[in-house]
Design goal:
This protein has helices at residues 13-24, 55-64, 77-86, 93-99, 102-110, 126-135, 222-239, 273-276, 281-291, 316-322; strands spanning 5-9, 28-33, 46-49, 67-70, 88-90, 120-123, 140-144, 154-156, 173-177, 181-191, 196-198, 202-207, 210-216, 243-252, 257-263, 303-309, 324-327, 338-344. By secondary structure, it is an alpha+beta fold. The chain has 3 domains: 5-90, 3-Layer(aba) Sandwich (Rossmann fold); 119-177, Dna Ligase, domain 1; 181-301, D-amino Acid Aminotransferase, Chain A, domain 1 (2-Layer Sandwich). A hairpin with a 2-residue loop joins strand 12 (202-207) and strand 13 (210-216). The longest helix has 18 residues, at 222-239. The radius of gyration is 20 Å and the shape is globular. The chain binds adenosine monophosphate. Adenosine monophosphate (AMP) binds next to strand 15. Residues 118, 141, 148-149, 151, 176, 178-179, 184, 206, 209, 248, 260-261 line the site of adenosine monophosphate (AMP).
Length: 346
C-alpha cells in the first residue's frame, strides 16, 4: 500500500506536526482549515480554507487527497461519513463518533471486559440532574456529551449553585463522579490489522482541566505500567483501530485504573515522543496511513514536556534560550490556548 497525498481535517498544532512528519518521508499534505490563520499553514503542501458547509471546497478537498485523517474529534459526523464514502479515513468514522460523545464512549468502554470508566449518569433534564447530584453527594462534574475539551463544557455543581442550572437546556449531558485520583496517566496506541505498537505510559499534570506537563516515564510500578498498556491494547482491539488512539486514565488510591477519555488522533501527552523516541506519534501515524508500516517507538531519554499556555507565550524567547521549544505560530493569544510547548531533559 502506498498513498501519495494525505488530507488532514484541521490545521492546528497537531496538523502542523503531521505535515512536518509527512515531509520527512516524502508524503504530500493538503489541510482543510476553518480558520484563516492556522499553525499548519506554512508546513503543508496545500491548504483549503473555508467552512465545512461549503460543498464545493469540501469536494475539492476530498478529490485532492488519497487518504484522510483528523486532528480533532470534534468534526461533524456528516463530513466524516462524506469523506469515508469515497476515500479511506484513519481512524474510521465509527471510532471518531464514539470518541466525540462522552456517553457513547463510556457505554462502549464499560462493555469491554475488565475495562472501567468513572461512574456517570446520563442527564437530560433538571430533575435528573437533581437526583444524580444527590446520588453522587455533590462530588461530581456536569459535562456536555459532545464538543467538550480542555475543561470546556464542564461545570462543577455544588449545593449553592445547583439552582443556577434550572433554566439551562440540560439535554445531552452526563454527570460524572469526581475521582480522587493519585495520578493521571495516558497511553498512546497505534494499530492496523497487522500490527499494534504502544508508547509507554506517561504521567500528566493538569491545571484548571488543561494539560500543563507530561512526564516520561510515568512514576508507576511495573504492574500498573503493564496493566495500562494491556488496557490500551484491549480498547484498540475492541475498536478495530486503524490509526492512533490516546487513552487517558485515572489511577486511584486502591490501584484501580479508570478510563477518563479517548482521543482518536495524536495527543498533547504524546508530544514528548518527537524528542525522546526514534519514531514519534506523528512519524508512526503518517507512516501507517501512507505506507502501511508502523515501528516500535524506541523511547530513550526521560523528559518532561511543558505546555506554553495563553499569556505565558510572552516569555517564549526567554524559554527558547534554555529549552528545546516548539512555537505553534498562533496569531492570537487567548487565556487557555495552547501556544507552544518546551522539552525539559533536566
Ligand atoms: P476531560 O476533558 O474530561 O478529560 O477533563 C479534563 C481534566 O479535568 C482531566 O484530565 C482531569 O484532570 C479533570 N477531570 C475530568 N473529569 C474528572 C473526574 N471525573 N474526576 C476528577 N477529575 C476530573
Amino acid at each position: 500500500m502506498k498513498s501519495d497525498t494525505l488530507g488532514i481535517i484541521g490545521g492546528g498544532q497537531l496538523g502542523m506536526f503531521m505535515c512536518i512528519a509527512a515531509k520527512k518521508i516524502g508524503a504530500k499534505t493538503i489541510v482543510f482549515s476553518t480558520e484563516k490563520n492556522f499553525s499548519a499553514k506554512s508546513f503543508c503542501d496545500r491548504y483549503i480554507q473555508g467552512s465545512f458547509d461549503d460543498k464545493i471546497k469540501l469536494n475539492e478537498f476530498i478529490n485532492s487527497a488519497d487518504v484522510f485523517t483528523i486532528e480533532t474529534e470534534n468534526i461533524s459526523k456528516t463530513l466524516l461519513r462524506k469523506v469515508e464514502k469515497s476515500k479511506k479515513l484513519y481512524p474510521s468514522s465509527k471510532i471518531v463518533e464514539i470518541a466525540q460523545n462522552r456517553l457513547l464512549e463510556k457505554k462502549f468502554l464499560n462493555n469491554i471486559n475488565q475495562i472501567q470508566t468513572t461512574n456517570f449518569l446520563e442527564i437530560n433534564s433538571f430533575s435528573e440532574l437533581k437526583k444524580a447530584v444527590s446520588k453522587f453527594e455533590y462530588n461530581c462534574i456536569l459535562k456536555t456529551q459532545e464538543m467538550g475539551y480542555d475543561g470546556k463544557g464542564q461545570f462543577i455543581i455544588s449545593k449553592t449553585n445547583l439552582q443556577e442550572f434550572k433554566n439551562l437546556n440540560l439535554s445531552n449531558f452526563i454527570l460524572e463522579e469526581k475521582v480522587d485520583f493519585i495520578s493521571e496517566i495516558s497511553v498512546i496506541v497505534i494499530s492496523n490489522k497487522d500490527k499494534t505498537v504502544v508508547y509507554p505510559p506517561v504521567e500528566n499534570i493538569h491545571k484548571n482541566s488543561i494539560l500543563r506537563e507530561t512526564i516520561y516515564p510515568a512514576k508507576i510500578d511495573s504492574e500498573i505500567k503493564n496493566k495500562s498498556i494491556k488496557i490500551a491494547r484491549n480498547i484498540a482491539n475492541a475498536l478495530e483501530l486503524n490509526g492512533i488512539l490516546a487513552v487517558e486514565m485515572f489511577l486511584t488510591k486502591d490501584n484501580k485504573i479508570l478510563i477518563n477519555e479517548l482521543a482518536p488522533r495524536p495527543h498533547n501527552s504524546g508530544h514528548w515522543t518527537m524528542d525522546s523516541c526514534r519514531f514519534s506519534q506523528f512519524d508512526n501515524l503518517i507512516s501507517l496511513i501512507t505506507k502501511g508500516k508502523i515501528y516500535s517507538p524506541e523511547p530513550s531519554k526521560s523528559c518532561k514536556m511543558v505546555n506554553i499556555i495563553g499569556h505565558d507565550y510572552s516569555n517564549i524567547n526567554r524559554i527558547k534560550k534554555s529549552f528545546k521549544c516548539y512555537d505553534y505560530y498562533k496569531k492570537e493569544i487567548r487565556p487557555s490556548r495552547k501556544m507552544g510547548h518546551y522539552m525539559d531533559f533536566g
